[in-house]
Amino acid sequence: MRASTGFNWCFLSPHLDDAIFSCGGQIHQAKAKGESVNVVSVFTADEPSAERLTYDAKCLHLAWGLRDNVYAQRRREDQAACETLSAAWYHLGFSDCIYRRDQDTGSALYDLNAVMAGEIKSPDAALLCKIIEAFRRLPQSQHVLAPIAIHTGHVDHLLVRIAAELVFRQKGVLLYYEDLPYACGVDLDSRLSQFNQWESQVHKLSEQDIEAKLLAVDAYTSQLFDVFRGQRPGEILASYANRIGGERIWRKKRIDWYQAISAECT
Ligand SMILES: [Zn+2]
């Protein structure tokens, strides 16, 4: 199902799995209340031809158990997961960082270490502009959820958060979700409490919400072993939900810059 009209909720997913891994329970809950949900995945384009793949990309494909038409298969997994939750899905068609190259030198922008290093390379500035344009063209939504991306350092997650802040923050619709399962071992509460600008809210989940989420998570067959490091996805996500009380979302408080500067300067 391709989204074309307005939605109650829009979940921005860097890759074909992040939104459902992180927010599948609240998506199920919203749909049960009759609300509309759009899952927008950003880095969804077909992989380059075999001779253009880096060694790291080939290793990842091996870990995913996929040989040919890798991203076509991943898109089908995402479609199946979203349909399990009766959510609309939309694929923006940008290339994953493991395939991106410097246009001038032709060299790969990120190896597997650089992917998680939290440093966006300067050639990606043009890509950021394109993502911003794509976000501007999305159907209206009452709430837009972006990955908080604090604990992953993944450059694609950071790009999505930055673009979301530039497009949706001023509109007052932007919320942040915790990127799961990467946030499972991180104490975000104490990390963010140092800064006075964050507040959180837990979406309490029922047994049915968690069950529905795990059913949708299972659709990402190629990703489960790699992302969950060989552990059981259901156990990791359910134990996190039990510890937190559901799925937690964050909001940045509005800062009155005039007051803040006035206070500093008097
Ligand atoms: Zn991701």
List the helices and strands and how they pair.
Layout: E1 7-13, H1 18-32, E2 37-43, H2 55-64, H3 70-84, E3 88-94, H4 112-115, H5 124-136, E4 141-147, H6 155-168, E5 174-177, H7 188-193, E6 198-204, H8 207-217, H9 224-227, H10 233-244, E7 246-252, H11 257-265
Parallel strand pairs: 1-2, 1-4, 2-3, 4-5
Antiparallel strand pairs: 5-7, 6-7
Helix pairs in contact: 1-8, 3-8, 5-6
Zinc ion is lined by residues 14-15, 18, 154, 157.
What would the principal axes of the Cα set say about the shape? globular
Could you give the order of strands across the largest sheet?
3-2-1-4-5-7-6
Strands, count = 7
Distance between the termini: 56 Å
Roughly what fraction of the amino acids lie in strands? 15-25%
Radius of gyration: 18 Å
Structural category is: alpha/beta
Assembly type of the shown chains? single chain
- What is the CATH architecture assignment? 3-Layer(aba) Sandwich
Low-confidence stretches: none
| Average pLDDT figure | 92
Predict the CATH topology.
Rossmann fold
| Share of helix, binned | 40-55%
According to CATH, what is the class? Alpha Beta
Number of domains: 1
CATH superfamily: LmbE-like
Largest sheet: 7 strands, mixed
Q: What pattern of helices and strands is seen along the backbone? A: EHEHHEHHEHEHEHHHEH
- Quickly count the helices: 11
Spell out which ligands are present.
zinc ion
